Amino acid sequence: MKLLIPIDGSSSANRAVEHVIASAAWLKDAPQVFLLNVQWKLASGNVKMFINQETINDYYREQGLEALSAARGQLDAAGLAYTYHISVGTPAEAIVQYAQEQRVDQIVMSAHGQGMLATLLLGSVAGKVVNLAPVPVLLIK
After folding, report:
1. What mean pLDDT, rounded, does the chain reach?
2. Domain span at 22
3. Fewer beta carbons within 10 Å, N or C terminal of the chain?
4. φ/ψ (deg, to 5) at 140
5. How far is CA 45 from CA 42, 49, 104, in A?
6. What's the pLDDT tens digit per position in 22-68?
7. 38 pairs with which residues across the strands?
8. How many CB atoms are located within 10 Å of the residue 82 CB?
9. DSSP state at residue 46
10. Mean pLDDT to the nearest integer, 120-136
11. Would you tell me how many other CB atoms lie within 10 Å of the CB of residue 89?
């Protein structure tokens, strides 16, 4: 079974990882776990006049690895193999696109992300994923 866990660095997202670890014992074979962090694309235009693309890419990578570190630690401690990816774009769309590219069987994600203000301003990423995903989405509180 292929499982995608979107990770934004929040404690809520790490609960989704905990759920997958606990559920792995129920499965006949260990799941194939994919961790995904999506970085919001930095404003373009004049930014690139002052900062080169390599520096921007390094920033995405650094922020993504920081967000993924706790989840990776949890999976390492549990002995579950995983792959991770850092994407850039709009979170819900990037999550669904990656799920399709990897042909995952299920997306396991937090029902709540980084904060209520972001949810009010941007809408619920989880809600958008539920509406867009062609595979089952398990929301963890």
Report:
1. 89
2. 2-140
3. C
4. -110, 130
5. 10, 8, 35
6. 999 888 888 999 999 999 987 666 666 778 888 888 999 999 999 99
7. 87
8. 20
9. T
10. 81
11. 14
Domain tally, the chain: 1
**Residue whose tokens read 């990882």:** 17
Here the CATH number for the domain that contains residue 11 is 3.40.50.620
Long-range CB pairs of 12-16, under 8 A, 24+ apart, other chains included: 12/110, 12/111, 12/112, 12/113, 12/140, 12/141, 13/71, 13/109, 13/110, 13/113, 14/70, 14/71, 14/74, 15/110, 15/140, 15/141, 16/108, 16/109, 16/110, 16/140
Note the residue count of the chain: 141
Q: Please tell me the pTM assigned to this model.
A: 0.88
Return the structure tokens found at 113.
């992300």
Q: Return the percentage of the chain with pLDDT > 70, whole number.
A: 87
Q: Which residue has the tokens 């995405």?
A: 60
Closest CA to 5 of 22, 24, 20, 27: 20
Q: What is the rounded radius of gyration, in angstroms, for the C-alpha atoms of the chain?
A: 15
Under 8 Å between Cβ of 33 and 97? no
